[in-house]
Structure formats: C-alpha cells, structure tokens
Design brief:
The chain is of the alpha+beta class. It is built from four helices and seven strands. Strands 1, 2, 3, 4, 5, 6 and 7 form a seven-stranded antiparallel beta sheet that branches.
Length: 170
C-alpha cells in the first residue's frame, strides 16, 4: 500500500470540495464521495512512499509546525492512463512549495517515492474522482462549479495505507 503525508483543509474549503464530490456522485459519475470511511477527506498529498519508518515519522513530527497557508483552487486537471483521476489544481504558493520541499527532504531516502513527488515535478491538487473512464470526463467537468474556492490549511496528517489509519503530525 501507500504511506503519505497530507495537508488538510479548513472547514470552508473541505465543505466546497465535498459539495463537488456529491455533485458527481448524484449524477452517477465516479467521485471520492463514494468512499464511506471516516478517514476519507479532501486533502493535498505532499509526499508518498511505499514505507515511512518510525524514525522518519518522528523527524516529521519534530520538524513540522502547523502550516499557516492560504489555499486557492485553480482549474480542473486530469491525470492518468486508461482510467483517469479528476482533480482541482491548487495554485502553488512559495509557502506551499517550501512545505512540500521540506517534507521531501525528510522522506527522500524512504523506499518507493514516485518521481512525480520530487520537488519541481510535484503538482498540488485535490482529488475529486478516481478511475474515471474517458467518456465520463466531459460530463464530470461540465458538472463542476468553477473553482473559485479559497481557504487555508488546517493541519498535516500521516496516512498509513497498510494499517488504514491516520494521525495528525502538525
């Protein structure tokens, strides 16, 4: 599975993204809304690795402070191959890029870090739907509200995909 470090959103931005999730699922389109776990929440993935050891977790907790970041959504972006991921871009700010870079520095020796997580290759985004077929992209994009949402970071969490658990680290 995957280990990740994720930026959580304030209530206003979280609510705006959940509204988009519901809009997609109400139209019988793929959406993150269908994941009915308490840990499923809108977020910005800052780093991913196949494994993050306890020492690295401790370093993250010691070095990170709660971020004071303003977040603004940009346009829709589509990632992937045969089945796509639909997301909103997050407009990169100097603070957001610096945070991601500092987390990468701590994790850089962890196994299984994908190339798209490296600073300079990372695309900040909030996922709206996964496993979207190409013929669903147009209808999905047409349903979405123009991305005028703004908000702030509300903390940083660690996600352990193997254990299916989360915890706050800042």
């Amino acid at each position: 599975m995957v280990q990740s470090v994720e930026l959580l959103l304030d209530t206003e931005l979280d609510t705006a993204i959940r509204r988009e999730w519901r809009r997609l699922s109400d139209a019988a389109l793929p959406s993150q809304d269908v994941v009915r776990k308490s840990t499923n929440r809108p977020h910005i993935t800052l780093a991913v690795a196949r494994h993050i050891d306890p020492e690295t977790d401790l370093l993250l907790q010691q070095q990170l402070t709660p971020p004071n970041l303003h977040l603004a959504l940009g346009g829709v972006v589509i990632f992937g191959g045969h089945r796509k991921t639909l997301a909103y871009l997050v407009i990169p700010t100097a603070g957001l890029l610096a945070l991601q870079r500092s987390i990468f520095r701590v994790l850089h020796t962890s196994p299984g870090i994908p190339a798209h997580i490296h600073p300079g290759d990372w695309t900040p985004h909030i996922t709206l739907a996964r496993r979207v077929f190409p013929d669903e992209i147009g209808p999905a994009v047409n349903l979405l509200t123009p991305a005028q949402a703004h908000g702030a970071a509300a903390g940083i969490r660690r996600w352990d995909g193997d254990a299916r658990r989360e915890w706050r680290i800042a």
